């Protein structure tokens, strides 16, 4: 009985951690989440709801809206850009109102939802590029959190009364990993 309750609690906790933020929910149950499919069939994707994200390449605040140029990355099920992937192309998202350039700075991670409304010709460096355009209705900025996990299996601790000793038999191993968080 205890095992079932424990496993149920762990499963509930894991599902709660992997939920999509409210700002990234769409009216469509299955929005387009792959920029490659949009690039391959731009006419078929027009007007469709999308959820796309990646690395901010540039930000420009206009009078009534903000233009974000984003290098697209695949997304996880909870809308986070996968930082272990390579960019698959670029798109432009127009967000209503003003976005703080310090918060939405180049190299930050962002996910947007909205409708695909057309294309925009521009340049990436000196290369001519056609950007799919998203009129965003929601967005989420992400942080990359660096964590270090240390494994100390090659040591021995012994305590007798108030005396403790430590014997190391090798080197301590560690791993640095990055996690995307809100």
Account of the 3D structure:
- The protein is mainly beta and 182 residues long.
- Helix content is 14%, strand content 50%.
- A five-stranded mixed beta barrel has the order 1-2-3-5-4.
- Strand 1 and strand 2 form a beta hairpin.
- It is elongated and about 75 Å long.
- The two termini are 36 Å apart.
- The mean pLDDT is 84.
Walk me through the topology.
Elements: H1 2-17, H2 35-40, H3 42-45, E1 49-61, E2 65-73, E3 90-96, E4 109-124, E5 127-151, E6 155-160, E7 163-168, E8 173-181
**Element order: H for helix, E for strand:** HHHEEEEEEEE
Distance between termini?
A: 36 Å
**Alpha-carbon Rg, integer:** 22 Å
Poorly predicted ranges (pLDDT <50, ≥5 residues)? none
Major beta sheet summary: 5 strands, mixed, barrel
Mean pLDDT: 84
- Given helix and strand content, the structural type is mainly beta
Major β-sheet strand ordering:
1-2-3-5-4
Count of DSSP strands: 8
Our estimate of the beta-strand percent is over 45%
Quick recap:
With 182 residues, the protein is mainly beta.
Relevant terms:
single chain; 182 residues; mainly beta; 5-stranded mixed β-barrel; two-stranded antiparallel sheet; 3 helices; 8 strands; 50% strand
